[in-house]
Amino acid sequence: MRPQRTGTALIVLATLLPAANDAQAGDSPPVTAPFRDYVRVIERPYLRVALTVTVIDRQGRPVRDLRRDDFTVTEDGKPLELADFAPEGDRRDRPLSVAVLLDLSYSMAGQVKRVREAAQALLKGLRPGDEIMVAKFNDQLTVLQNFTGDRDDPEKTLGRIGVAWGGTLLFRSIGQTLRDLRERPGRKVILVVSDGLDNDIDRGSVYQSLYLQDLLRSCFRTQTVVYGIRPGLSATSWLPFEGFVEETGGRLLYTGGDLATLFARLGEEFLSQYYLAYDIDPKLAAKRRRSVRVEVRRPEVVVKTVRGFTAARGHVQMGVRDLEDKDARVRADAVYELGFASDPRALQALLGAVTDRDEGVRRLAAASLGRLGASEGLGPLIDLLGDPAPSVRTAAGDALALFADRAIPALVEGVPAARGSGARLAAVVQLLGRVGDDRAIDPLAAVLRGGPAGARAAAAQALGELGLSPGIPALRAALADPTPEVRAASARSIVRIAGEAARAVIEDYIARETDPRLQEAARALLARRATP
User: Fold this and answer.
1) Which of 361, 370, 454, 501 minimizes the number of CB atoms within 10 Å of its CB?
2) Which CATH class is domain 407-532?
3) Rounded to whole angstroms, what are the CA distances from 195 to 21, 98, 103, 105, 238?
4) Is residue 192 within a helix (H) or strand (E), and if so which, with residue range?
5) Could you report the per-residue pLDDT of 360-402, keeping only the tens digit for each?
6) CA angle at residue 171 from 167 to 175, to 5 degrees?
7) Contact status, residue 260 vs residue 118, Cβ threshold 8 Å
8) What does 12-71 look like in DSSP terms, one character per residue?
9) Strand 7-12's sheet: what is its strand order?
10) What's the rounded Cα separation, in Å, for the pair 215 and 236?
11) Any idea where the domains of the chain sit in the sequence?
12) Is CATH 3.40.50.410 correct for 96-275?
């Protein structure tokens, strides 16, 4: 690529993420930090556009020393203020998931050994918390190693790759991998080792063109960048894969033989990228196409990021129709996409999807209702807290947490309604601890006095997470609860709320406690508070 005096990339709206909460957190640490960062989103009058930007010099080496002031972002020619900026390698809240797809078709024969060595080189550059999966594909995709942070796992897996055979279904394999990536946190990379030839793509087919557009939209929704590695080949002809990679903000790289060195350099590049975010009016986000220009105040650098996006607004009808499909995978894709559409039809379809017979569809429907943030979703999400599938209950809880204090009235009303189900009641109580305020104290105290044992323990913990002193009387009474877990949780919460002022209460509790383990745990609470 020819060097430029100013590095520039033409991109469009890729990923709409709600803005992080600017309010200061309370004294009590959140149960899960990412949710607290995300939880106030729907109260804000804007959406966040998140970009991963690669900046390289004329030799293809990452430029690492850029600051916020070095970047300029304009949208449709209008300057934008960055709401967030950081080197991706410093963002511990944005773990990296790398999916390595190895082409084992006839056209890649002779490359298997070098691919194995190169993938092992890539593994060495991952940070703690980053994960990798390995799959091979020809006329079908086979996952060799699910996502893992243990470097030894994929290294062993890569020794069992096998030999090259069959045709290539490149884009179908990418689509299947995107389904695996969409629920993973942080940023994602699909690293494809292939010659880019797809036996299933007809360049003149309108259907295939629409399919590639759908794939691109999935990449943008999931914050996934695709890189292509073509071993031993040069850029001598146009292929659909080349254009696809460029659109996602990735790079298509060619190597004559030293594949391991190239993979190692890619690992460095992933950690040298930059995270840029800015906020926009969600009403404007409905435009079908938005052009954004990113510039760097540094001579002779090249900027890489996403280049195009087609809004999903026109695909609502298709998503609603797909919810009637017999294939659960089709229905799952539909509920995921509908979660990005600010259309009444999408909301109604998702409200119906929460009762789908497939666990995966219900789980994604819960997540989509959380993204939309419509109050109509509160009741169905609370109902899902009693779903028989643990993954659905977790997704419903996470979705409700996104509503923040808007969910409190519904959760308070849900306490008596959930008394017939201990698991559902405990889940409602836990959420009140995560997002509640003083309105949650009375219902939590009522559960602590007369709920099932599991719900009583959850209520004691939730009162501690609220950190409000009016909850202490109910907690003091619960120190005499017949269930050890409730007594232990109550002691922890009293100390959490009152600190050193709770010493006399806890010492009295220790004197009356008959369980030696709980006595020791309570003494440890006081000792930690006394430590300067």
Assistant:
1) 501
2) mainly alpha
3) 44, 19, 8, 10, 12
4) strand 187-193
5) 999 999 999 998 999 999 999 999 999 999 999 999 999 999 9
6) 125
7) yes
8) E---EEEPPP-SPP-SSPPSSHHHHHHTTGGGSS-EEEEEEEEEEETTS-B-----GGGE
9) 7-12, 291-296, 71-75, 78-80
10) 25
11) 96-275, 312-402, 407-532
12) yes
SS (H, E, C) 412-454: HHHHHHCCCCHHHHHHHHHHHHHHCCHHHHHHHHHHHHHCCHH
pLDDT score recorded for residue 21: 36
Question: Is the four-CA dihedral 87, 32, 21, 390 of positive or negative sign?
Answer: positive
Kindly state which CATH superfamily the domain 312-402 is placed in.
Leucine-rich Repeat Variant (1.25.10.10)
CA 242 from centre of chain: 27
325-347 per-position pLDDT tens digit: 888 888 998 898 888 877 889 99
Looking at residue 196, its pLDDT comes to: 59
Q: Tell me the sheet residues that pair with 296.
A: 7, 71
Which tokens belong to 298? 């540094």
The residue ranking higher by pLDDT, 11 or 205, is 205
Read off the tokens for 196: 């880019």
Instruction: Name the phi and psi angles at 503, rounded to 5.
Output: -55, -50
Go through 41-75 and write b for each residue having 16 or more CB atoms within 10 A of its CB, e for each that does not. Answer: bbeeebbbbbbbbbbbeeeeebbeebeeebbebeb
| pLDDT score recorded for residue 35 | 30
